[in-house]
């Protein structure tokens, strides 16, 4: 399917475990982003990528790692999950030259 | 420090009336502003945007107003419809394609 997809849609993990959230887009957009949505905070940028092999920190990067070996994929890894990382995670992409980012459906992550 | 603020967590409006959602920002380097709409269990979807060189942009029932001197923007929905019930996020961009989002306002349209 064309567009931007995220997997899994729901995930429950335990404190200390490593977990990877996947994001895939079919538009060949240059830019990709990871956000977390928390009540009272809206959407906060975790990491972003301007192109393959180019990534940079956003507002709340601590505890997260990203990679982008291919333009279409932008996985987000929680190296040692903590309860404070319980959130809804959104991936987004944009070609560049336009601010209209396109969002995936989200992954609801619960850390117990 | 919250650079983009939506001070109303929720808003309830009668169907057919006007809905006005507000957003304030502090960073004068922002030059592009957007509104996103979000339904439960879905990702945000783009609604309307405005460049800092304009003070108004209209798209059907949706109009965004920008007051640069007050660092304030608003989204007007006329007439409001039940399908407009959602969470609305304003966002601002100052370059590098990055967006800074407000906290969101939950709009409920009552029949």
Strand content of chain B: over 45%
Distance, first to last CA of chain B:
38 Å
**SSE series of chain A:** EEEEEEEEEEE
Beta-strand share of residues of chain A: over 45%
Most extensive interface, residues per chain? A-B, 25 and 24 residues
Biggest sheet character of chain A: 7 strands, mixed
Task: Indicate the overall shape of chain B.
Answer: globular
The helix content of chain B is under 10%
How are helices and strands ordered from N to C of chain B? EEEEEEEEEEE
Q: Uncertain segments of chain A of ≥5 residues (pLDDT<50)?
A: none
Mean pLDDT of chain B: 95
Question: For the residues shown, what is the average pLDDT of chain A?
Answer: 94
The total count of helices of chain B amounts to: 0
What global shape of chain A is seen? globular
Number of DSSP-assigned strands of chain A: 11
Query: What Rg of chain B do the Cα atoms give?
Result: 13 Å
Unreliable spans of chain B are none
What is the straight-line distance between the termini of chain A? 33 Å
Task: Tell me the number of helical segments of chain A per DSSP (H or I, 4 or more residues long).
Answer: 0
Description:
The complex is a heterodimer of chains A (about 110) and B (about 110). Chain A is an all-beta fold and about 110 residues long. Chain A contains no helices and eleven strands. The radius of gyration of chain A is 13 Å and the shape is globular. In chain A, strands 2, 4, 5, 6, 9, 10 and 11 form a seven-stranded mixed sheet that branches. Chain A has a four-stranded antiparallel sheet with strand order 1-3-8-7, with no helix packed on it. In chain A, a hairpin with a 2-residue loop joins β5 and β6 (about 55). Chain B is about 0% helix and about 55% strand. Chain B contains no helices and eleven strands. In chain B, the strands form two sheets. In chain B, strands 2, 4, 5, 9, 10 and 11 form a six-stranded mixed sheet that branches. Chain B has a five-stranded antiparallel sheet with strand order 1-3-8-7-6, with no helix packed on it. Chain B is globular and about 40 Å long.
